[in-house]
Amino acid sequence: MDLKAFFKLSYGLYVISSSVGDHKAGCVANTLNQVTNDPARMSVTLNKDNDTMQTIAKSGRFAAIVLSESTNMELIKTFGFQSSKDTDKFSGYDTKMDELGSPYITDHATARFTCKVVNQIDLGTHVMFIGEVESAEVLSEEPVMTYAYYHQVKNGATPKNAPSYQKETKKVGWRCTICGYIYDGDPLPEDYICPLCGAPASAFEKLS
Fold first, then answer.
1. Which pTM was predicted?
2. TM spans, by residue (predicted)?
3. Extents of the domains making up the chain
4. Which of 40, 74, 119, 194 has the least C-beta neighbours within 10 A?
């Protein structure tokens, strides 16, 4: 099976977020989809171990923003490779509250959606939330980031909790532990600097 075939599917890249009390949670996802038009409803699928998934389950609501191609890897690292249990991901970003009280960032956002959960489906390792769209707004006319663009241009990695995560197989190279950039080849030069986030060679781990 050629796993790269899955990269041909047309996904966007989004930040999904919610809150309970003072706790704010958010994560990068590529699983946001419109499922009906009248009423307007969207689905998003998140891993059960994901703090954002657990926060949405408690709050019954979520916000979603569509990321632009200009999104930097620092934002991807923060919302895609860290846990809201341990990190205030929203610190340092322009954050607003939507009509239902969910936080969302406006940095590199081209559009936003406010959703109220009307159903959820247990998929084993993941949960799919169906949300009725309460509001929607265009924030920018910048080109949107697709999953293919993220992999091909940003050379980004996929978090292990993502539905589209694939284990590395027979690949020689080094991965930046900060942003996920992959350096093809071996050995890694001692003075190498990550072209995306500026991390030194010591921040890279060898792909096995």
1. 0.75
2. none
3. 11-148
4. 119
